[in-house]
Amino acid sequence: MFEKFLQTLMDAIAVGSLYALIALGYTMVYGILKFINFAHSDVFVLGAWISFSGAIATGWGAPGSHAVVARWVWGGLFLLTAAFVVATVVEFALKRARGEGSFHIRQTRYAGELALMTAWGWAAMALLQASRQANSAMGLKVVSGFLILLCAMLTCGLVGFTLERVAYRPLRGAPRLNVLITAIGVSLFLQNAGQLDHMFGTRPTRMPSLLPDHVLTEIGGAAARIGPDGSEIAPSRQGVQVRLVDVIGAGTAVVLMICLDWLVFRTKMGRAMRAVSFNEKTAALMGIPVDRVISFTFVLGAMLAAAAGFLYSMKYPGLNQSAAPVWVLLGLKAFVAAVVGGIGNVRGAMLGGMLIGLIEFFGAAYLSTDFRDVYVFGLLILVLLVRPSGLLGSTVAEKV
Amino acid sequence: MSSLHDKARQLRPGIGAATLSSAWPVLGVVLLAVALQLVIKPLLSGVAGGDFYSKVILDIGINVVLAVSLTMVNGFTGQFSIGHAAFMAVGGYTGAGIVYYGSMYAYGDPAARAGALSTMLTDHHPGVLFTGGDALYVTALVAGGLVAAACGFVVGLPSLRLKGDYLAIVTLGFGEILRVLIQQSSDVSYEADEVRAAPLVGLAQLFERPRADWQAPVWARLGGPLGFSGLPFYTSLFWVFTVTGLTLLVAYRLKQSTFGRAFLSIREDEIAAEAMGVNTTRYKVWAFVISAFFAGVAGALFAHTTGVQLSAQELGFQKSFDIIIMVVLGGMGSISGAAIAAAAVTMLPEILRDPTKLVQWFPGILVLTLACAIAAWIVRAVRGVTAKPLWAAAGGGAAVIALTALGYTAVVVSRWIGHPLDIKLGDYRMLIFALSLILMMILRPQGLFGVREIWDKALWPKAGRKG
Fold this sequence. Notes:
The structure holds 2 protein chains of 2 kinds.
Chain A: H1 2-33, H2 40-57, H3 71-98, H4 111-138, H5 141-168, H6 176-194, E1 205-206, E2 215-219, E3 225-226, E4 232-234, E5 240-243, H7 244-266, H8 268-278, H9 280-285, H10 290-315, E6 318-319, H11 325-341, H12 346-366, H13 372-386
Antiparallel strand pairs in A: 1-6, 2-5, 3-4
Helix pairs in contact in A: 1-7, 1-10, 1-11, 1-12, 2-5, 2-6, 2-10, 2-11, 3-4, 4-5, 5-10, 7-8, 7-10, 8-10, 11-12, 11-13, 12-13
Chain B: H1 2-11, H2 15-46, H3 50-77, H4 84-107, H5 132-156, H6 164-183, H7 192-197, H8 204-207, H9 237-256, H10 258-268, H11 270-275, H12 280-303, H13 317-330, H14 335-352, H15 358-382, H16 389-421, H17 429-443, H18 463-466
């Protein structure tokens, strides 16, 4: 009985922390732009699949399988670099022709962003190469896995940046439903792009386990008790195994959340984010670079989602194709977590994620496995009816 | 005050005239549908691939009903519902249960007993217009709509407390819970004896579930996660056209009526509407109920369409998103826009399945567009538009020809590039669809028509008015 409780608690915390990581992305974007970024769950899927591809490319696959980065990735990277160079030269020449002062890359229209993206792409690639070195030459398995996590986070951050720049920024100030439809379009795009043969394909695969799968400690449990006549009085009970995967997963998630909390509440950028969330126009008047803050938020959310994808693929190695309904349901539950905690509230998202994990796993363990989704969405409707702004959300009075 | 009231009453047409004036459009819709079924269907069955075309027409009709019904909530009332497919599922499963188990009780097997009005292309002609099976089917359509409307009432109630995104999330949660519940239902029974022996409506049986000899009540045998299979096909061009026509009619009359204007006032400004004495809560719930009714009927139509597997997964949030896409592309609050967008969104993935085939269509498109241009020119000339009609027509024609040539070149070039690289354009159809969605939102955020209708005079300006 105790073992079952403990086991459920551990699973709930492990998955709940992943929900929380994804929910943070939803909640931050909602807090600032007031729209539900339905493409966020696809960034999470992308993170899981990039982790898989990265692991294969750095030699984690089955022995004898090719450990190469797809040729089009290199091509894309060189194209990006070329675009950066061309943009810089053109904008420099234009500025010279107009006779406007000194050339500064942060004040250009495109070159600055392209420089950022290029540097980003190359950094991700460098991380991948380092991971391969660590894996094959040095035999530092754990370091290699960690570098793959960083690479996935960087790549997804780049994707998040690009999405915001290309799809969402032109719609700033448009009706909210339009932005929502765009998000659905982006989500469809990511799902179906992931299914192409050149990307991840349509076949489900199995993630190689990047962490040594050993049991740290066993709690509870007992050996069989044998009576004096040799008969078994009590059968042996298996204890709760605390696995390294679970500990590292939950640990990474918690560390990331603490970092985020520090970032949002203790740094200058975090203050800017909160200011933009509070009132975008006033923040802009106060000299806060709103565009940069929003980009930063998207990148941050995407990186957290990528980390969640990596950790999820560690815990559940069977990876479904990118458009599988399983992924969408996971994303929806994370979104529910954000709403339950109070959307727009960073700490609320963490609380909501944990709460959703607990409800789902305890309901599945003690009531019925069949209705695990019902518990989650039932909690959502209950919370919304009792406290529409979520557990930690603040109500905003409507002004006429 | 009272004299004004009396005057208004005197001005009101008699009950006979009123019935006649409101009945003729309905009659017209039904007659057109009969004509479609009895004239177009035989023509289609002669064409190669006629089955495919008729299936596409059925899909378009059902999607038009869905999009127009969602327009009543999202477009007219401005409430944001993202669980519309759930109402469709309610109606679909209700209708499926009635038709399937009704046939089992009445005839002993679920085969379709369709009259001439509901036969498919390939089926032979039974010689009767309307049979007992059809009666069952009509009952199913109406019952599906009513049960869905009841669900719409339940879902509409939270709108007392919730606004905007939060209401949307509740509708989403409702859809998800419904999906899980349907997926927990028992298998479909294929034996008539088993069906007749099973308890009809016992709720008590559901709670006896752990027992070994447990028998699910008939209404809970909906197929579980695999979907409701073995349904007879009744949905024909006639039924789809009738329902589509009636939905459009109701939406049109709603938009013109006092009742519907209350919806519109809530969309424009809820607080102002409330201040003017509109009972916003009541109207919001009504919007949900009416919209859910039509979605339920569409679901019942969908359940009995050929080549369709009715399953809860199919009618999940992705279907809801599809419907929202149609509504937004058409323009929020535009009935005709939603209908046209529904048709376009249904056809687009089918066309993109093999875009190289588009090349064959170009001459047809060209002729059709030129015909439209000439017709528009004639209409303008008749209505007394003097502002260079000939030039406008010529310019339009030239633009059409240029666009067609451009599209033709694009397809040929993409085929030329794609072939050696082994790129099949069909694989990219959903990508192209997603990209065009994003582009449309960025370039034309108000949708195809905005809040206007295709029959609005503002879309067809007289030159004189412009001055």
